[in-house]
Write a structure and sequence with these properties.
The chain contains one helix and nine strands. The protein is mostly beta strands. The chain folds into two domains: 35 residues; 169 residues, Porin (Beta Barrel), CATH 2.40.160.20. The longest helix is centred in the N-terminal third of the chain and has 32 residues.
Length: 216
C-alpha cells in the first residue's frame, strides 16, 4: 500500500509539471521564433529618378557659381545597393548621373554634358521607428561632354554627396523613397591654357526612388 501511494504521488507530480514545462517551452519559442523583424534588414537596392539642377565655377575665375546656358533642370539617375548594418545604418555603393543633351548654338552640333559619380555611401536613420534618413558619400567622378560623332572631353576628379530622404513602406520588401541630395565634383586640368584653376561642379536633385530589400 505504501509503495502504491508513493507511485501515485510521483505520477501526480509529473502530471502537474507537464503544463508548466509546456508553457515554458512555448514562451521560449515565442522569444526566439516569433519576434518581429525590423523593417530594415539585409541586402537593399535603390533605383532613383530625379530632376537635377547643375552649376559650376573655376577657382581662379571671379564671379562665383555659374549656370550653363538653357534650362537649368535636367534628368538625374541613381542606382545604389548594399547591406544593412543595423536598423539605423545602411552602407553601400551608388552611381549617380546627371545628363544634359542639347544643341550647341555656337557649333550647331549635338552635345551631351554629363556629371557621373561612383561613391561609397551611408544612410543613417536617427529614429529607429521612422523612415527618415540622412546620407553622405565620397568617391570619384567624371565631368565632361560628348560631341556628336563620338569625340569628347572631360575631367576625372573627387566627389562627395550629402542629402536626406524618407522611406515609405509599401510592403515588407518594398519602399517608396523621396530624396533631396547634392553631389559636388572637384577636378583640375594642369594643361589648361587659360589657367582657370580647379573646376567645381555641383548638381542639386529632388527625386523619388524605389528601395527593394528581398530578404536577409
Amino acid at each position: 500500500m505504501r509503495n502504491t501511494t508513493k507511485t501515485l504521488t510521483a505520477l501526480a507530480a509529473v502530471l502537474l509539471l507537464i503544463p508548466f514545462t509546456d508553457a515554458m517551452a512555448q514562451r521560449r519559442r515565442g522569444l526566439i521564433d516569433v519576434s518581429p523583424d525590423s523593417d530594415r534588414h539585409g541586402f537593399w537596392l535603390n533605383l532613383g529618378l530625379a530632376a537635377g539642377g547643375e552649376n559650376f565655377r573655376y577657382s581662379n575665375v571671379p564671379g562665383g557659381w555659374q549656370r550653363p546656358d538653357g534650362d537649368l533642370v535636367k534628368p538625374s539617375f541613381a542606382i545604389a545597393l548594399g547591406g544593412t548594418v543595423n536598423p539605423q545604418l545602411r552602407l553601400g555603393g551608388e552611381i549617380n548621373a546627371w545628363v544634359w543633351d542639347h544643341n550647341d548654338n555656337a557649333t550647331g552640333f549635338r552635345v551631351t554634358d554629363y556629371l557621373v559619380g561612383g561613391l561609397l555611401v551611408g544612410q543613417v536613420y536617427p529614429v529607429r521607428t521612422l523612415g527618415l534618413f540622412v546620407k553622405g558619400g565620397v568617391g570619384i567622378s567624371r565631368s565632361g561632354e560628348e560631341l556628336e560623332g563620338g569625340s569628347g572631353i572631360g575631367e576625372t576628379g573627387f566627389a562627395y554627396l550629402y542629402g536626406a530622404g524618407y522611406e515609405i513602406k509599401l510592403s515588407r520588401s518594398l519602399f517608396l523613397t523621396p530624396t533631396v541630395a547634392m553631389m559636388q565634383h572637384v577636378s583640375s586640368n594642369p594643361d589648361d591654357p587659360l589657367n582657370q584653376g580647379s573646376l567645381h561642379e555641383r548638381v542639386w536633385t529632388i527625386g523619388v526612388g524605389l528601395t527593394i530589400q528581398p530578404g536577409r
